[in-house]
Amino acid sequence: MEALRIVIDVFIGISVFFAFAGVVGMLRMPDAFCRMQSSTNISTLGVLGVIIGGILHSLFILGDSAFAIKLGIMGIFYIVTSPIAGHAIAKGAYRHGVRPDKKMSVDKYGEDLVEDLPQETVPDAVEEEVSA
Amino acid sequence: MKKISFPAVLSTAVLMFLFWMVITGQIVSIFRGEASWQVLTAGGIVSILVGLFASRFFIHESAFYLWNPARFLPFLFYCFIIFPIELIKANVDVARRALSPKLPVNPGIVKIPTDLKSEYGQSMLANSITLTPGTITMDIAEEEGQTNMYIHWIDVATEEPVEAGNAIKGTLEKWIGRIWK
Amino acid sequence: MIMQELVFFAICFIVLACCLLFRFIQGPSVADRAVAADSIDILADMALILFALYSGRSVFLDIALITALLGFIGSTIVARYLEGRL
What is the ipTM of this complex? Predict the structure, then answer.
């Protein structure tokens, strides 16, 4: 029982460590996109350690399998949704005009977007309204 | 409005019904023989309604594509072995960058090609790339028959599209190509 | 067996979330605030899960699930607004 307790503590401790690294990265990184990279650190291993430790705890100490199944569903949910939110926020922020203070070393998206933007914004919006 | 196909509705409804059983806790009590028929019936009706409404957002290609051991086993292998290894490596790398005193970052947006044709395969690769810390997929664009992804990379090693693609995708694309073509 | 250290880990998560409040208040752009709010949501969820494990009551797990759902919907809607399609 003591060994199991140590294993659970190690999993949750890994999770706390990666959450700490993500928070420090979010406070220290130089621009908005790099901060998003650090926030991915929180939402992947920062979550999975707690989920795995919690499944072990609920199966072998609490003895409640409904708890474990619910935790597993929450883990899958986090893994499926967090890249969608990150991708949406990154694209939306770039299109809204958020740029880093220092110039990025290579910016292929900006170069290609300048050509696309005049054709893409105006007619598409009108068409969407008409078809909807 | 698109046509509603029966397999799409069925697969969405089964998924929604499983989710309902998990949320209400019936999935445990059905093994103990104390499941409540009222809860199960209500969940079944609601999940069929949701399937009729939402299947055209979820399912665009054949609905039971994964229902085949030759595709499902690589899928499981990818989800439980290949991808976690990449995830842990990338996590350790970004954590080391964030905690080191000199903050060694060199951000930039690169453009990489991908050979995957299927819609699900492309979205799975894009989500895998976003989920590994250090890279975020910003957009997918198609020009002249070649699909490209724009990726924000925290440490740009090379600007060359093919080399950057090999560095970012690694073994991920090969395994996804076995599942979705 | 009551595991006292789960509460300690939950307090660690809450302290980390409080550190992120700085980025939420000071963040120069909207994207910073959205990402910080999303991360605070996730950290608070982790604390809720740990407290549910400590107390053995599944009510906290349901609350954590709903909070995760709302956080995802909120950040997606913020992103859509930033893109100019709302």
Answer: 0.89
